[in-house]
Amino acid sequence: MENGIYACGATNEAGAIVSTKNYKLKLKDVKQKKHILEHLLAHHKMFECSPGNTKLCRGKRGGISKPATNIEFTSQPQDILANEGESIFLNCNYKITDNTDATEQTIKWRKDGEVLSDSIYTKQHARIHFNAENSSLSINSLLPSDAGNYECLVLNRDDSEAISKPNTVKVITKLKFSPKPTSKVLELNTTGKIHCKAQGAPNPTIKWVSGNDAPLPDHATVENGTLVFDKVRYEDKGNYTCIAWNEPQGEIRATIMANVAIAPQFLLKPPNVKQKKHILEHLLAHHKIFECSPGNTKLCRGKRGGISKPATNIEFTSQPQDILANEGESIFLNCNYKITDNTDATEQTIKWRKDGEVLSDSIYTKQHARIHFNAENSSLSINSLLPSDAGNYECLVLNKDDSEAISKPNTVKVITKLKFSPKPTSKVLELNTTGKIHCKAQGAPNPTIKWVSGNDAPLPDHATVENGTLVFDKVRYEDKGNYTCIAWNEPQGEIRATIMANVAIAPQFLLKPPSNVQIDEMGTVYLHCQPTGDPFPTVQWDKDTKTIDKSDLDNERFQILDNGTLIIREVHLEDDGKYGCTIGNMGGFKREEVHLMVKPSYLSSSGMDDDGFVITRAVMITMGVAATYIILVIILMIWCRRRRNSRKLKLGDMKDNGDLEGEIKTAETEPCLPIEKERTSGQNGLSKKSNGKAKTNEQEKSDDTVNSNKSKKSNSSSSVLDSYSIQRTALLDLIPIGKGEFGEVLIGKAKRSDLKTTNNVKEETNAIATETTVENEKKPKEETKEDTEYRYVMVKSLTKVKDEHAITEFRRQIDLFRTVSSRGVARLYGLCREKDPHYLVLEYTDWGDLKQFLLATSDEVSTTKLATKPIPLNVLQCCGLAHMLAKGCDAIYKAKLIHKDLATRNCIITSKFTAKISLPGLCKDKYNREYYKHRNQILPLRWLAPECLSDDDYSIKSDVFAFGVLVWEIFTQAVKLPHESIPNEQFITDAQNGKLEWQLAKDTPEKLKNILLSCWAQNPKDRPTFSQLVAALGSCLQSEYPKNPEEEANKHKKSELL
Question: 335, 601, 802, 857 - which has most CB atoms within 10 Å?
């Protein structure tokens, strides 16, 4: 009632009239506005305060509300979660702190800020009951609309009031169809649709199946629950079932019948209007079944038959009205006319019609009808106007001869009242998700909607308003609080609705109940159901969908622990069934079911016999396998002994003929089965060369000798890794430098002659097949300078021999450095596999890893103890290092392998300023800050491409991404980590969402910027290849130093170091 449009109206038994002029009232002075309202409250009983006038008046009591100081509530607020159709009970316990009599208080209940009317309690078969004795409120047969915040309101005689804290009621909507799908006739060769909608909590999933749960035809799809036939065919006729399902409530079904028909068509259409009129008149005269449609007003009227004609004896005396009224007001329409002939007034019938359709008599006769027709003066009155009442109203006068007269239309326009539709309600938002709170309003003109925080404060930065909906991009704990929706338009002002937004963590199971549990009768079973969430979830157990109430339990046998676990002692046969555990809080619900199967006691003994039989059978099978294995070993030993004896006899004959003594020694000492632990570098290398002279005449060889030689060849070819075996004693001065993913990493040195390289292995493999003489075998090998030259080596040990992942990664690294042969990649020097731990021996350098070198030459961070300040690398030297490493990466790419951990810490550099790709992988201590454990894997987080984090998808393109970070490290001297200010968890989220902004180092040459930035493209296909990177880096160096860019970079570095 405050500012707005006002109209004057008068009402008596004869009807009502409303002024045609409206007056717009604006009160600029707040004091004057308050004075007028208080005057209306005191002197005019018709005035009623609207819900928006809570600051000046309350309900229908008048006056200004004030808080009651003598009321203190003793009952705590309740958070109730109940299923639709159940009953709940709300208490209102309070005490009076002064001497006021208890009879002086009036108790009311209100829901979501609106007082519940007394008529709700007094209705017959009312669901909501108010107990005046204890002030409690009970609600039976819960509906989803009953959800909300309920408060107890205590009113004193002095109009002071006290309001309790809100009791929150949440209703789990029952799974049901709305409405239930019905059978339908589909038109042939058209698009056919059969709708199916359902409601429940949570929202159900809908699917369709054919009869007997058969799949749908290929041309039938389901769109938002609607079964759509692309082009209806005759074979589509039949039964179809709509299935609505959600997790806690299961599924419901509705089966319908789909028929197929051809729409009616005209074989012969009426040729002209005259013939059409003749046919209609014939039908009206001879066929009573025919009814005129509303469109045939020119040929027939209503259901009276015949052709309508205008009445000439009726003349309307009232002028048409153009009425503009507010929603909720009353209007009055006149129908004054006079009869110009001698016809009696009782021979006329009066009707009103709206927008061309006659108003049915049932509208007037309904109880509490808003529309009244006064038969005495033919007027029409409409009370409590609705927006749908707007339109053109005409008075229709019918004579007995079927002639009719129609008045000019009375135009009624309704100003829609500004109101929420529906009113926004409090909502629980789930943490770290997108939260939405809806607010819709209607009015004339259409209102503008905005949201503010409590006390009209602005919204948080991550909150926006979209079409009236308040949207939180990522809900946080600090988003909890009050928010106000404001709907406004110019003539009616504004209305407000304040809601409470709570933040919760959706319930999760810490320990789920198992799906099936079998227990013997009279045993004890533990059904676990341990939840987590914020607020802590409520646990509810049910058996066969019937809720288990603690008060109904047999406390001696059943017990529900505080953590949600259900214990059943002395299990009976009737305890068999499905037990469901539902956990819920303000953030939602989750449910798990367990099928408890009780085994009768009379089956227990036989069960023991069955178990004993199973154990006996298992023991017998194990003993049989062991015996078979022993027999096979014995047979193999006998065969080996015979084979060795036959070889001795053959070699004895050869000795008599002057053959080699070394062959006899080989035949006696050669093992029957090659044992990997006995394979040393000496046996694989020089000893193999000295095992005897190859025969030139195949006829002199026995069959056993030929097979023996073939066996040696197959053994050497089957295990390429044996050719890389070296002795542990060859590794000298080993010093640990850290720990890697699968063991300790050491550095040391070894003689060049004791090491294996790709060229050495090839030479030794060829030497096995070449023919040598005994004299050459017996000649002592002279030790050269190369043999005494020492090489730096890095040793990676495999200590986690039972870790499948560690073993697989160890083998992958062996294949990587064994396969790739390039100056830019560290070489494989050998393997020690005769005992644990296994050793992987790689090339190392005198200057060590590249990261320590970059830090040592940085002017910001120096790890050296030099008196003079180190000279940082210049742009040319950085480009030279990147160019050499790019060549190494290109060699890995051409070998169709991937590195997976490219970084300066995994590269090495020599005193000749040559950089190489290696893989120390010191993730446990030295460089543990540069690694992070994610999904039970230790990852070089800040060097990984997005697809590695989200899909564990490693490729050569992910190596290109890491190479871009490696180049960034070189140009920044590796003084800080990439995106060092971002925490690891946030880094993972931003990387997967493409929100990380990679920036090049300050000294990056202009020619390299575009290609280096493309290394960090979100889409792997948009990243360059290593061949392109080598070409770009080489071009950049060539443009500055055209002779030999890498040599020039080396010269510059050497001169600076000197």
Answer: 335
